[in-house]
Amino acid sequence: MTQDKPPTGEEPTPSPQDLREQVEATREELGQTVEALAARTDVKTRAHDKTTAVKRQLAEKTTQVTAQLRDKATHAAEAVQDKTPQPVRAKAAAAGGQVREKAAHVSELAHEKAPEPLREKAGQGMRMARANRTPLFAAAGALIAMLLVRRARRRP
Q1: What DSSP line would sit under 109-156, residue for residue?
Q2: Is 152 or 31 the better-scoring residue by pLDDT?
Q3: Residue 18 burial (CB < 10 Å; 0-12/13-18/19+)?
Q4: Dihedrals phi, psi of 111, to nearest 5 degrees
């Protein structure tokens, strides 16, 4: 704001134009001060801004943790594969094939024995899951990341 100086008698009297300019400058400063105070007291906008920032941080952290998990899982799978003898891997592959065959057989039996309304609902659920894979995987990844972070916090 403007500083008030006591008149010394040597200064000329301000003209009406000078006074108007001083009043306008004071109004401008006061308007800026009021806007700054209003911004500080606008809790809704500040909360929204904070929420947006937290969401952005969470998304970045989720992406980072997901990438780390993917890298660790790949590394672990490679380590297990390197340390597992060939005959054991062959048996595991054969067992996996048998499990897939049994699962397909059980699925066919369940499909034959299930009532029509249940089959329709199951089919509808499968179509929705296939159509929304990305959000499902993102939600699963976020859940896993949250659980890992929570687990890590519990450890000393």
Answers
A1: HHHHHS-HHHHHHHHHHHHHHHHTHHHHHHHHHHHHHHHHHHHHHH--
A2: 31
A3: exposed
A4: -65, -40
Interatomic CA distance for residues 84 and 59, integer angstroms: 37
Task: Render pLDDT for 85-115 as a digit per residue (tens, 0 to 9).
Answer: 888 888 888 888 898 899 888 888 887 888 8
Can you tell me the distance from the alpha carbon of 96 to that of 103, in angstroms, rounded to the nearest whole number?
10
Instruction: Name the average pLDDT for the chain.
Output: 83
Percent of the chain residues topping a pLDDT of 70:
92
What DSSP state is assigned to residue 95? H
Distance CA 40, CA 50 (A): 13
Residue type, 83: K
Tokens 């911004």 belong to which residue? 39
Nearby residues of 69 by Cβ (< 8 Å), 6 or more positions away: 141, 144, 145, 148
Which one, of 8, 41, 4, 47, lies nearest residue 26 by Cα?
4
Q: What are 136's two structure tokens?
A: 């499902």
Q: Which of 30, 60, 26, 81 is nearest to 145 (CA)?
A: 60
Q: Can you tell me which residue has the tokens 């899982």?
A: 73
